[in-house]
Target: 2,3-bisphosphoglycerate-dependent phosphoglycerate mutase
Amino acid sequence: MPRTLAFLRHGQSQWNLENRFTGWVDVDLTEKGEAEARKAGQLLKQEGTEFDGTFTSVQTRAIRTLNLALEEMGECWLPVIKNWRLNERHYGALTGLNKQETREKHGDEQVHIWRRSYDVPPPPLEDSSAFPSLNDRRYRGVDVPKTESLKLCLDRVEPYWNEAIAPAVRDGQNCIIAAHGNSLRALVKLLFEVSDQDITSVEIPTGNPLLIQLDENLKPTAARYLDQDRAQPLPGGF
Ligand SMILES: O=C(O)[C@@H](CO)OP(=O)(O)O
Model:
């Protein structure tokens, strides 16, 4: 029996608009981001897939994107499971900084390494940072990271895939995963077996559902973005 997964990166956030490193800071969607989320819901509805369950992070921008999409689909009743392991990659000491100003200060190459290399994390967030997550009660009992590379992000996403999402999919459920640019890149790396090198060029557009068909071994057999005008190249020849 074929299974369908939909990866949905949240719509434009306030800090996407302001071009700031966001990571674990809980910024909300802009009006454009809300519109992207609704459009994603319309596209998913047109597709006609019957979804059974949904997963998201504990960050407002992903949760609201999912809710707005489900509203458009007329499927607000679907179960939603939230987990911090689907959060955005933690941006360490870059959190809150403007990406262009950071390029001017540290150079394009260094910023590209921080943003897209597989295993080079940015410097850790300092305890004096204006953006601590440590005391946030949603992270009670969580070993809150001080920085993460994509590899470290995958290291905490992968157990959640194995323990929560994969069993549901194996069970025959079609699932939506509403998450973030880098936590979804981590899942793309895992599912499509993308090399450490090739994952550096994978970009997932905001609010554009990526529909993936999986076989019984959870290997992708087809994948495409529903909004083809805003599609990005996919790994694995899809
Ligand atoms: O700032 C962030 O948290 C992420 C996602 O918006 O940015 P980037 O695409 O640079 O990894």
